[in-house]
Each structure stands twice: as C-alpha cells, then as structure tokens.
C-alpha cells in the first residue's frame, strides 16, 4: 500500500473535480477553487467569487487536501481490514469529496463495508432506504458518477476478495484423469 497519494489517485481527483484557477460556487453553492478545494473561513476572508487564484496556491491546496483524504482512507481501510491499493484510492476519493467524517453520515454503508457486505454497502450509498429500487440517496442524486465510481470499487474489491478466498480442492484435483496426448 502506498503511503502517499499516488499519481493515479491525483489524476482521478483532477478528472472528477476538474480544475478552476478562480473561485467559484460548487453544486452546493459553497465557494471552491483549484481542484475541488472548499475554501476555509480564513480563505473566504481573502477570496471572493470570481477571484483568480495563483498556481502555487492551487498546487498547495491539492497537496494538502489529497494527503488528508488519502491518509484518512488508509486509516479507514485498516479499520475494515482492507489493504487493496485500488480500494484505498476509491476511499480517498470519497474522503476528498465528502470529507473525512463521511462515515458518520453513512453509518450503514460503513458498517456493511466493515462486515464485508459490499452489495449491501452499494445499496446503502445509492438508495435512501438502503434498498435497491427505492428513492436515490442525496449523494447519488447530486453526484451520480462519484457514487458509481465507489460502487464499482466496492464490487471489484468484493470480487478480488472472493477470488483470493477460493482454494482448489486438492483431493478433487488429484482424482482428475487427463486424456492422453
């Protein structure tokens, strides 16, 4: 597991967040800049909507924000007993978008991840009631691509885990007779 944000993680953040060299209001009307950086109280005193942001500042923001999200993902993955790099990066993306306290807002999804019930976790992040076919969650309604990204990561990790747990039954393999050449 990489100890620092990987280039693939940063590239994914840039793809999903986009980049703006000025201050803009995000989909929730919160002032943002650079690569999805939500301006802090102190930054709101310095910047107003439409203000240009220099490259050194946006680079620093991305480094700080991505490191915080990635470090939270490593910690969360350890809690869930997961060491898969791709899944850690997916968790990092969730932390970047929703904040590192996202688990307190999605307790059932996190509990399902910890229990290894990944299909249930997918339903919890997609649907308000946690049941497929019911009303979509607020997160899914606001940013469906991000929810689909995390759903795919959950599904892929689930498959990887299941494949790793599979062991051929040696007694069955010993009894197989191969045809002559």
A few lines on this structure:
The protein has 181 residues and is mostly helical.
Class from secondary-structure proportions: mainly alpha
Taking pLDDT < 50 over at least 5 consecutive residues as the criterion, the unreliable ranges are: none
What gross morphology would you assign? globular
- Give the spatial strand order of the biggest sheet: 1-2-3
Number of helices: 10
Q: Distance N terminus to C terminus? A: 45 Å
Tally of discrete structural domains: 2
What would CATH call the architecture of the largest domain?
Orthogonal Bundle
Main beta-sheet strand count, sense and barrel state? 3 strands, antiparallel
Q: How many strand elements?
A: 3
H-E order: HEEEHHHHHHHHH
User: How much of the polypeptide forms β-strand, as a percent range?
Assistant: 5-15%
- Kindly provide the name of the CATH class of the largest domain: Mainly Alpha
* Helicity level: 55-70%
Write out key terms for the chains shown.
181 residues; Lysozyme; globular; 7% strand; 3 strands
């Amino acid at each position: 597991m990489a100890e620092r944000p990987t280039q693939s993680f940063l590239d994914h953040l840039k793809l999903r967040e986009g980049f703006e060299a000025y201050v803009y209001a995000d989909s929730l009307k919160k002032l943002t800049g650079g690569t999805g950086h939500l301006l802090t109280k102190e930054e709101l005193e310095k910047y107003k909507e439409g203000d240009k942001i220099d490259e050194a500042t946006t680079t620093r923001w991305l480094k700080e924000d991505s490191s915080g999200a990635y470090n939270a993902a490593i910690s969360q993955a350890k809690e869930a007993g997961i060491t898969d790099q791709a899944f850690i990066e997916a968790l990092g993306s969730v932390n970047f978008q929703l904040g590192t306290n996202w688990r307190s807002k999605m307790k059932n999804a996190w509990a399902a991840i910890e229990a290894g019930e990944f299909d249930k976790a997918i339903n919890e992040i997609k649907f308000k009631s946690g049941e497929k076919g019911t009303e979509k969650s607020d997160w899914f309604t606001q940013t469906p691509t991000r929810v689909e990204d995390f759903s795919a990561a959950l599904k892929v990790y689930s498959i990887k885990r299941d494949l790793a747990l599979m062991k051929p039954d040696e007694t069955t393999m010993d009894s197989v007779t191969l045809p002559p050449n």
